[in-house]
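Hey L., structure's done. Input below.
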Amino acid sequence: MNAFRRRGVGPTLLDEAIERSPSLEITALTGLIFGHDEASLQLFVRAGFVHRGVLPRVARLDGVERDIVIVGRHLV
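Output:
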């Protein structure tokens, strides 16, 4: 997985999802992001997503309880 980091794959895939969604009659997108993942949070903010809420300590990653941040964007 590290081979794909910092290569622009995330922004490309997110832009594609945003672009194709209206043709699939999808009017809003929601993202669930680990709260400590600043790079992913910034990616979604730059793409126009806004903070919708936090699910505190609902996930365990590498033995650590993590928050999940909910972000969303309306497309129409």
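The domain at 2-74 is CATH 3.40.630.30 (Aminopeptidase). The chain has one domain: 2-74.

-- N.
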